Amino acid sequence: MVTHGSTSKERRKEIAEAMNSSKIRIVIGSTDTLGVGVNMQRNLRAMHHVDAPYMPGELEQRNGRGLRQGNQWNTVLEYRYMTDRLDGKRWQILAVKQRFINAFMKAAAGTRVIEGEAAADEQSDILESFSEAAGDPRILQRVKMQKKLETLSRKERMYTQGIADMRRQERSSAEIADRLTRELKQLADSRTQANIEALIAGQQQALSATIDGTTYDTRKDAAEAQQAIIEANVRIGDSMKTVGEYAGHPLRIEWPRYMDAPVTQIDAFGQEFAGKGIAGAEAKMRNFPSVIENKTRRRDMERATAENMRAAMNQPFAQAADLESIT
């Protein structure tokens, strides 16, 4: 049965029904007459392409007459007929269009230019047909080699970028580790932790807090005096101001805009201990050993990171030999 441009829609439907009921075994037509909207898949065993269509979607529509739900066959065959060399240009154009469409659909939102070989998709069945039609299997081989070259080149660029990133990370980690080492040495040389522990112990036995010129020996009285100073002189957004002493060390108050209450700070032995009231600042002083532990842990971690980065930077590009063999 042959369909053509003058075959009506109703007649094409009758032909499709005849194919599905096995009354007709062969139908010849074009992409337009046997493409979209033709449902004759039930008994369709094979599609034969005498020529190459102009668009990849048209080839998909042709094959879609049989490669669809409702076909009773487990395997549907596809045949492409072509002459040596003469059909090469047609299939090449189809390969160009298919690659462009695929690249366009997979491109990122910010992509403005799509570059590369026209037939760069080595998995393309259209490209295989182009290679066969051109009578030169080297076309497909060349594309595969170029695809491999692009892949290896991309990996080499990623390797080079990774080395640069690791170099920056190594430098940063080494600088942090050196800084923390100096800080820990300074704290150890000045016996900061021991001095803070002695200060806390002495204040526990006999508190000495001077606020606005008056010295207090109980935390309750000191807290009330500090609250009176805050109510009278401290407002939201006020910067740090000295209001007295804590066993001879500066006692200061500030009220940051992002906090709902003032902050009390005790400056002792080169360290700043801030909390809610005198009790909160004292809690920070008692927690100073954990500060030392955290600095030590961070220093060791940064040292290990720097060492790992140095070791990784010495590793060569694993596929350098493969890249050299095809360049």
Describe the structure.
This protein is of the alpha+beta class and 327 residues long. It folds into two domains: 72 residues, no CATH class; 191 residues, no CATH class. 53% of the residues lie in helices and 11% in strands. The strands form two sheets. A six-stranded antiparallel β-sheet has the order 4-3-5-6-7-8, covered by helices on one side. A two-stranded parallel sheet has the order 1-2. It is elongated and about 115 Å long. The two termini are 55 Å apart. 18% of the residues are buried. About 2% of the residues have low confidence.
Secondary-structure map with pairings?
Elements: H1 9-20, E1 46-49, H2 56-64, E2 77-80, H3 88-106, H4 125-134, H5 138-189, H6 192-205, E3 209-211, E4 214-216, H7 219-233, E5 241-246, E6 249-254, E7 263-268, E8 271-275, H8 277-286, H9 288-313, H10 320-325
Parallel strand pairs: 1-2
Antiparallel strand pairs: 3-4, 3-5, 5-6, 6-7, 7-8
Helix pairs in contact: 3-4, 5-9
For the sheet with most strands, the description reads: 6 strands, antiparallel
Query: How far apart are the first and last residues' alpha carbons, in Å?
Result: 55 Å
Structural class: alpha+beta
- SS strand fraction: 5-15%
Q: Segments where pLDDT lies below 50 for 5+ residues?
A: 117-122
- Tell me the number of strands: 8
Count of discrete domains: 2
Form type: elongated
| Percent in helix | 40-55%
How many helices does DSSP assign? 10
Order of helices and strands: HEHEHHHHEEHEEEEHHH
Rounded mean pLDDT score: 86
> Largest beta sheet: what is the strand line-up?
4-3-5-6-7-8
Task: Output the radius of gyration.
Answer: 40 Å
